[in-house]
Amino acid sequence: MDASTIGLIAFASVLVLLALRVPIAFVLAGVATVGGFLVYSLRTGTFTPERAINPVTSLVMNSFFELIHSYDLSMIPLFVALGNIAYRAGITTRIYDAANVWLRRIPGGVGVASVMGCGGFSAISGSSIACASTMGRICVPEMLRLGYDPRLASASVAAGGTLGSLIPPSVLFILYGIFTETSISKLFLAGILPGLLSLAGYVLLILWWAGRNPAAAPVDPQPLQPGARMAAALAAWPALLLFLVIIGGIYGGIFTATEAAAVSVILTILIGFAQRTLTLATMWAAIRESLIQTAAIFLIAACAKIFVSFVALTGSAGLVVAWVTDAGLPPLGLMIAISLLYLLLGMFLDPIGIIVLTLPFVIPLVDGMGLDLIWFGVIVVKLLEIGLITPPVGLNVFVIGNVVRGAITVDQIFAGVVRFLLIDLVVLAVLILVPAISTFIPNGM
Asked: Can you give the pTM of this predicted structure?
């Protein structure tokens, strides 16, 4: 059995084990170790396991060490800590509070405010799941109290929560940049316009839904207190400042992405203590949550690096490239095929699992056709974003279902999410056909 065949069998084994709900870190490292052992043992044509022990050990340890000591990886704990500390300090939800006050007097206004709040939360936290969980607790009960259609109330937050994948900072962009060796700063900037385009699509859908069926999104009858709009707008300044520091600093060449993360964490702590919304106890709770989340991401990334090294050893990625080349697919045909693959995997796997599993195979294809890897990174993250609300295993849908347990069923959330999925597919098509939307800002660095 040659190495390429072993590699393809290993990939199929990974999919089977993930379908059986085996943790992805153990799957990737375990399959890569066993597969590497077989490759080295069969290299001479006969099975000689004693010749495989040292090379396999070297492959596993060197891959793990190389990933963990990556400078770019250091921004993950910083951005995770930024999101948790900003949440504990009450900063992440203030854009929603301001939008809610300004928009609640129009049909569907609270739903629009929820999506905008998700966008603001995403611009600080970088986590779709955290965004859906936090905003779900705040926005969905408020919309239900006003008499919103449960499908609209829940689906708007489930879809809005996916913006954490695309609007920078984004953990998925960081992982993509590390594994493809592309500029993470440019990836962050490339996600801005596509993220705003997705947000605008969601807002238009909610306004159309409310206009077509006013009973689904009634107006709040309570009058506003004098000066409430201005007070709410002024209270949102810390969130806007943090976003400007991250994006303005990177675009202006003042910071690298890692430096922007570090500066933002310090700034968030200072604002929290100055406004007395952050205490030592709440900051320690945020740091503890960040350590747990970072450890999980690091373990998956390190095991994925082992799997990537194994794929390179087998040459199976080159075999896939040869198959696609022989098929004569044009660039657009390749992008459609890759999109269908990601949409299919998104129905069953989590985003991090999909990205670390597929990149070793799809990046050589895309790079071989001369396509822009920054633009392709935006397409990949958009596809992973869609997977968060795609049945039957849309993570954001189940997060919202858990948050509002008893008030709304998962079936109702999926029924509402279908309309948002249609918007996502339109946005995806636009991003594929018009790459300039993704590359305009990073090309201006």
From this structure: 0.87
